[in-house]
Specification:
By secondary structure, this protein is mainly alpha-helical. The protein is about 45% helix and about 10% strand. It has a three-stranded mixed beta sheet with strand order 1-3-2. Helix 3 packs antiparallel against helix 4.
């Protein structure tokens, strides 16, 4: 069920005792795991991120698009905060890519299932959550100008063969690092890349 914003709800977990072994499937242990991951990473919402979220090349920072609403109101009432679920997805995806040299598409699938499990464990309807994400992608996919993280990991875009977008992103990242190039790309926009398709999910 929905109710209090997660910022309040999750503060209770450290005081709640498990009813069974901690190796059993447990919504409470999953919640604690998300909290543990969150404490080890930096969450940055100061940039544009094509397809809503991504990660730094060293994996220590998770980037969420600055224009993505941090929450939505559920049909059943209550506020659903989304950052922690996106952070889990990106952390799992990046870890799998770095540890096992997986392609983005394979790591993404496992990360997406982890995200779904965390959403459902908090009593949130996955279809409602996913609908919010998909609608946000459509609204942000033509963002302009692109103010990108200078250390954003580009592997997902490389593996997706989104060449037009990748060229545009590299221009903006170069401009961010070197102001001399800023004027040359000031008119560039994500819309100019004319992507052939919308992403299947965020990233």
């Amino acid at each position: 069920m929905y109710g209090k914003p997660h910022a309040k709800a999750h503060s209770r977990t450290r005081h709640t005792r498990l009813r069974g072994p901690d190796w059993y499937v447990s919504a409470l242990m999953l919640d604690r795991s998300l909290d543990a991951i969150s404490r080890r990473l930096v969450l940055d919402r100061n940039f544009h991120v094509p397809y809503l979220a991504g990660y730094s090349t060293d994996g220590r920072t998770i980037y969420i698009d600055r224009d993505l609403p941090p929450s939505f109101t559920a049909k059943a009432g209550g506020t659903v905060q989304v950052d922690r679920y996106l952070l889990l997805h990106e952390a799992v995806e990046k870890a799998l890519i770095d540890a096992f040299d997986l392609r983005y598409q394979h790591a993404h699938q496992i990360a997406l299932r982890s995200e779904e499990a965390a959403v459902r464990a908090d009593g949130i309807q996955w279809r409602e959550y996913d609908r919010f994400m998909q609608a946000s992608i459509k609204e942000l996919v033509e963002q302009r100008p692109l103010h990108l993280p200078p250390d954003l990991d580009l592997k997902p875009y490389v593996d997706e063969h989104d060449k037009d977008l990748l060229v545009l992103m590299k221009k903006w990242m170069k401009a961010y690092r070197d102001p001399k190039h800023h004027a040359a790309v000031a008119e560039a926009s994500l819309a100019a890349s004319k992507p052939s398709r919308l992403p299947r999910r965020h990233r």
